Amino acid sequence: KLLDFKAIVNDNSQLFEKALVGEPAVPQLLTQVDRIAKKSGLTVARLSYSFSGIKDEALLISGQINYIDVNLSGLGSYAQMVDFMKNLENSARVINVESLRFAQERIDSTNVLGMTFILKSPYMYVKSNAVTDDPVNIDITSSLFTNMAAKVKKLTYYQISPNEVIEVKETTSS
Question: Quick one: pLDDT at residue 124?
């Protein structure tokens, strides 16, 4: 039983760590947003990021949540925009839509939607202060635990391959 407990906790903790990451992991986040946009049929025109929230390393390490802001501009249809938001919702890494602006544009005599998303993805440095003498009470058979684990397992995980190259034009803003 104890070996089963350890295996279940290890497997599920790895899944939860992919949903709420412990470090910024910006390349993975940008790749995930790019893949979700393309999977939804959007044409990505611009993808950029910035850090928001706490900048003090001491506060970060103390367990405060920090955010990466992602700015995505693209083109597509209304249905593709809705599909993008559904795919975001079902992605493993937590990404919130902070704001959305869209307007109809005419490109090559075709009407399309130009859209800009401001996305926020949280991350939290976790410093473990666990004491091995104190018991950890986790009921891996409870419906709360099993239902949450089942939801997390159904999410879509976007992995970056070491051979994968995404061409990005570097820009500077003043």
Answer: 78
